[in-house]
Recover the amino acids of this structure.
């Protein structure tokens, strides 16, 4: 198992951060691991909705089938997915409003036999990607 997280204060209201976070047509502008949504993002965005994402992590392409697990507008988006080689992936975006700013925390989780073989490198790569994603997202909404 590999757990990763990153957090940033974004100088924009939670509603504006949420709007960008859930605009699946613009993920390539901020999400450092995203390459495409072959069939588009979840529509409608609701618990139980599924969608496919092509990603790249540690230089390797991966296809993930995601399911929306938790959704609370402008507060929480949690998704869980199945990737290649029996790897399970979880991502949770948590927004905390702070006046005209928002603290956005991203927690990620990777489990499966293949993860244990490269947990250290995976943590480093995924943490760097989360931090880069937060930087890009902040630049888009600020």
């Amino acid at each position: 198992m590999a757990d990763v997280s990153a957090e940033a204060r974004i100088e924009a209201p939670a509603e504006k951060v949420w709007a960008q976070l859930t605009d699946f047509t613009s993920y390539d502008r901020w999400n450092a691991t995203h390459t495409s949504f072959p069939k588009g993002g979840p529509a409608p965005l609701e618990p139980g909705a599924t969608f496919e994402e092509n990603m790249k992590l540690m230089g390797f392409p991966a296809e993930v089938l995601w399911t929306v697990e938790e959704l609370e507008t402008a507060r929480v988006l949690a998704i869980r997915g199945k990737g290649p080689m029996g790897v399970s992936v979880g991502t949770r975006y948590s927004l905390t409003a702070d006046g005209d700013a928002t603290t956005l925390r991203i927690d990620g989780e990777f489990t499966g036999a293949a993860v244990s073989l490269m947990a250290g490198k995976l943590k480093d790569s995924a943490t760097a990607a989360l931090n880069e994603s937060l930087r890009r997202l902040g630049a888009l909404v600020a």
Remarks:
- The domain at 2-141 is CATH 3.30.530.20 (Alpha-D-Glucose-1,6-Bisphosphate; Chain A, domain 4).
- Residues 119-141 form the longest helix (23 residues).
